[in-house]
Amino acid sequence: MKRLLAIVAICASAVLAADISGNWKATAEGPNGTMERTFTFKVDGSKVTGETTSSMLGKSTITDGKVEGDTVTFSITANFGGNEMKIDYKGKISGDEIKFTSTSAAGGGQSIEWVAKRQ
To answer: Within 13 Å and on the Cβ side, how many CA atoms surround 112?
Structure first.
């Protein structure tokens, strides 16, 4: 019985996962003003893939992505001044808006708050 309930719970979370497929434009306030980043998400069940682009870090592939309910998480590896750094994203989905927090160990663990809107 416990196994059946676990399977039902897993299936329900996949069905209830928010569909974020498509293009999104995000902004954040940085030390030198507003930063912009675009995301193109592809969702297959709970798996999230795609790519992201910014003027500062260029294009990066989305890896380790998943969406569970109204939460999305993923990572990118960006090239900053010839150095690669992993950036982790966690976001809360609300309709056509996602509020992300991005963090990087290379950045001393500092986080950046982003707001993305579906395009």
So the answer is: 24
- Which tokens hold the place of 16? 């209830």
- Eight-class DSSP state of 17: S
Query: pTM higher than 0.70 for the full model?
Result: yes
pLDDT < 50 regions, the chain: 4-6, 8-15
Cα–Cα dist 50/59, whole Å: 11
CATH fold, domain 2-118, is Lipocalin (2.40.128)
Over residues 65-83, the pLDDT tens digits come to: 999 999 999 999 998 888 8
How many Cα atoms sit within 13 Å of 23 on the Cβ side? Answer: 4
Helix (H, G, I), strand (E, B) or coil at 64: strand
CA pair distance 52, 87, nearest whole angstrom: 12
